[in-house]
Amino acid sequence: MDLSPLWITFKISIAATAIVFVTGLLLAWGVTYTRKGRAVIDAVLSLPLVLPPTVMGFLILIFIGSNSSLGKFLDSFGIKLVFTWQGAAIAAAVVSFPVMYRGIRGALEQVDTEVINAARTLGLGEFLILTKIMIPMAAPGIIASVVLSFARCLGEFGATLMVAGNIPGKTRTMSVAVYTAMQSSDRSLALKWVLLIISYSLLILVIMNLLPAIRRRRA
Amino acid sequence: MKTLKVDIRKKCGSFQLVSKFETSADRFALLGASGSGKSMTLKCIAGIEKPDEGFIAIGDRVLFDSKRHINVPARKRRVGYLFQNYALFPNMTAFANINMICRDPSRTESLLNMFDIHNCRDLRPSKMSGGQCQRLALARVIASDPEVILLDEPFSALDNYMHTIIEREIMDLLSGFDGPSVLVSHDRNEVFRMCDTIGVMDNGSLIDIQDKEGFFDHPATLVAARLTGCKNITRLTEDGFATDWGIKLGLSPSDLKEGYKYAGYRAHFFEVAGEEQKGKENVFEVQVERVIEDTFSNAICFRQKGNDVKSQDSLLTYITGKDTDADDVKFLKIDPSRLMLLRR
Fold first, then answer.
1. pTM greater than 0.90 (yes/no)
2. What is the pLDDT of residues B255-304, one digit of tens each?
3. Contacts of A124 in chain B (CB under 8 A)
4. Closest chain B C-alpha to A115 CA, distance in angstroms
5. Local mean pLDDT, 10-residue blocks, chain A (219 residues)
6. Interatomic CA distance for residues B247 and B302, integer angstroms
7. Residue B332 contacts residue B269 (beta carbons within 8 Å)
8. A137 — contact with chain B (CB < 8 Å)?
9. What is the rounded CA–CA span in Å between residue B50 and residue B67?
10. By a Cβ cutoff of 8 Å, what residues of chain B touch chain A?
11. A27 contacts: CB under 8 Å, gap ≥ 6
């Protein structure tokens, strides 16, 4: 059995989670400051959660495809995103973004505003407040969001297939491998991937549920 | 000495905040019921909330001026704010809580010693007692080198014993602090012990500012009289009849001319009178309704015999020693010089 889909899936998911962690954290932080237009901004940032994967794939291709201005710009440096694992990572990032963003926003909003106000009156700047106070205080929620978006990336299928295709050893992820195996009527191969996916997904969710208890025991 | 000048207006939900005062070296208190706008005033000074219009300055340094569009951010105001629930950084040790602010480890060590919390140096706030948390919060405020210190109900989370100790410590600290301080409280005793000048807030407005002796002896308004703890208050007619109490008060013609609307009398100022005084001005014929036993005194609740006004204020309170038998109290007399006459 060719295990390359396993490695490719994890490579894509780790890259996508890293992108989404930074962007999700910064945007969630920014949104906690907005008052006017917050409902709209929040809705736009959460859109990938409800749109069909094909719509997301379509939009991503429009933005990074070889006919787009960004695609042409990157092409002049010899960088191609469509049909590469990097493109798959971008697709996974876009699709899992709302999971990270909403989770972190919720965690940051849980931080006691009195503590933040105290920090301000004591002369601390906003970035210092974020890194030294808000992130440590919101850590359990942030960690849970990272785990959940990573799991979402692992399970990504539709947008990835449209953007990165199904190139064995290059862009074929586990979920795509199940699809391909079924197409070629290789039920036993499909079942192997299915069992593997179910087991690690379950493992991740169990670990996530145990995180609060582990933290409590340490404290 | 720097002066704190505040003159702000802000619409907050159901009421309009109107707060105007000036204070320099003296300790200023804002006294008012909860929800009267005391904390909102402090938050505007600290820059946590933004007033709709007005002016805030410390000495020559303008912190807020709606006309000139000045709104200095909270972190640059140098206004120390002591929060009700301390608002310590829960993820940091006591040392880190202070050092985060002054970024000077040797100063942090000396502040830990000065506030007697060096034994908690490496503990997080969740492992510290209420008193230790309060001291840490104070040390942190001092570490930020404030020009003004604001205290928002600083003792509400402490038990009676710690309250006394921390109150003394804050007094010591403030007497060594070279700048104005504002205390927010609903506790008249605390305010009396700690402050020199008192402002009364009612429903968003700062209605009365007086020095503390004048404030407790001669409150100017009904709200102020209630806040000083005056238990007996009555409406007053033009000819000096106490509507709620049901007796005539012996007011001088000049007092009558002033047109006072209310009169108040402190519960422990009544004098026991004899039968011969019955029916005279300032004298109650006592009908005891109930006796409430307190720790060191008894409160006798009574009304004027035959008074058919059944308002909350028609029932008066006479506070007396534990050895007084309520059955012996037949007549009580008011000393007119101790009446508090209120214009509104």
1. no
2. 888 888 898 999 889 888 888 888 888 888 888 888 898 888 888 888 88
3. 75, 100-101
4. 5
5. 92 97 96 90 94 94 89 88 94 96 95 95 95 94 94 93 93 94 94 95 90 76
6. 13
7. no
8. yes
9. 14
10. 43, 46-48, 73-81, 83, 85, 87-92, 100-101, 140-141, 143-144
11. A45, A101
The pairing of strands B27-32 and B181-185 is parallel
Structure tokens at A167: 């190139």
SS3 annotation, chain B? CCCEEEEEEEEECCEEEEEEEEECCCEEEEEECCCCCHHHHHHHHHCCCCCCEEEEEECCEEEEECCCCEECCHHHCCEEEECCCCCCCCCCCHHHHHHHHHCCHHHHHHHHHHCCCHHHCCCCHHHCCHHHHHHHHHHHHHHCCCCEEEEECCCCCCCHHHHHHHHHHHHHHHHCCCCCEEEEECCHHHHHHHCCEEEEEECCEEEEEEEHHHHHHCCCCHHHHHHCCCCEEEEECCCCEECCCCEECCCCHHHHHHCCCEEEECCCCCEEECHHHCCCCCEEEEEEEEEEECCCCEEEEEEECCCCCCCHHHCEEEEECCCCCHHHCCEEECCHHHCEEECC
Query: How many residues appear in chain B?
Result: 344
